[in-house]
Structures are given as C-alpha cells and as structure tokens.
Specification:
mainly alpha, about 0% strand, elongated
Length: about 90
Amino acid sequence: MSKGLQIAEPPRRRQNGTGGAPAERKKPVEVAKFDHVSEDEKVQFNKRVTRRVADGYEILAIRTRRKVPDLLAEALSLLEEKHGKA
C-alpha cells in the first residue's frame, strides 16, 4: 500500500530580532470621534435627473465655489418667488 500524500511541514513563524519572544502588538492610534453637529435638520435628497442637469449643478457649484445643496436651496427660493410656495 502507498503511504498517502506527502504533505510539507508548514513554514515556521517569523521571529523578531529579540529572539523567540513574540512581537508586542502596537495599540491602535485613537481617532477623533465624529462630533459634527448639524445646524438644521437635514435629510438626503435622492431624485433622478438627467446627467446634463447633474453636471450643470456640479459645474455651477465649482464656478461659484458653493455646495450643490446650497444651489438647490437657492433654486427653490427662486421658484417660490416666481410660482408661490408649494
């Protein structure tokens, strides 16, 4: 009968330069916790628009150095002036 599979021994664990003592694990660096406080109640606004409209808002935000949500809020106020509040 055959002796079966000849499996190689697993590789030995690496030892650091201090001999056979295992290396001490470093403590993770503490990260500042999320402490952002919102000025207003905010919600996520997910609506599908064409790529052209989305790109237009992005380009306008870059040119005016403003954020897209601020541009949307201004657009709403302009529409309310023109057509009245919803």
